[in-house]
Amino acid sequence: NSLYIKIVTTVFMFIGGVNFALIFKLSTGHVRSVWQNETFRLYLMLILSVFVFFDVALLINSSVTTDWESLTIDPLFQIISIMSSTGYLVEGSENWGNAIFSVTLLLMFFGACAGSTSGGAKIDRALLLWKNSRNELYRCIYPNHILSVNSNGRTMSPELVNKVGVFLCLYVLVIVVGGIILSSMGLAVHQAFFSAFSCVSNTGLSTAETGSFAAVSDGGKWVLSLLMLTGRLEVFTVLVLFTPTFWSK
Hints:
A hairpin with a 2-residue loop joins strand 1 (about 150) and strand 2. The chain has a two-stranded antiparallel ribbon. It contains 14 helices and two strands, in the order H-H-H-H-H-H-H-H-E-E-H-H-H-H-H-H. The mean pLDDT is about 90. The chain has helices spanning about 5-15, 20-25, 30-35, 40-60, 70, 75-85, 100-110, 125-140, 160-185, 190-200, 205-210, 220-235, 235-240, 245-249, and strands spanning about 150, 155. By secondary structure, it is mostly helical.
């Protein structure tokens, strides 16, 4: 319950969610280039916007204590912990309400920046997915227009954009398959899917949804271990091991 420890931990969790290349640029004095990075700005914007949402939700929830620490440090600590896949929880956060829990799932899915210590699908991919989706909607109205996906002043190749879409589809598919396997091992459906999601994103949250991973069977723990490995090494790296072509080379 040390406020000092919470603040220090929050700062370093935030740094852990930043791309290492940007940290290196910052250490060499290239502050402007760091701020010009779209992903870093999105990272900051997500933290601030979700922080405001959490505060409003906590104020609406009359059953939660709303002193200055619970409205400032605790939500910020929780948000950055989830995005950086650190897995720390603020005491009593399970009582913050379903609205906050729903947004927490979104933070778990995307995590923080690529090239950082965080798990999740990474907000870099979310940004490219959003830009490509926006272009496709525009092409529905103007089908003859040629539009490209740009990131940090560079045009992304169609192959890279396509790879991002495939990655996100496979990411969701791994969670679904993991949830189905765990549910077939005796876990309740919502517990199975949340456990699979938590492990693929490398967040490791159990909260009230799973109670404790100690209750999972030995076979279930092997499945969860494989899901954590898949999430940490990235989906393509692990799934390619299951293709016949890889072993025939």
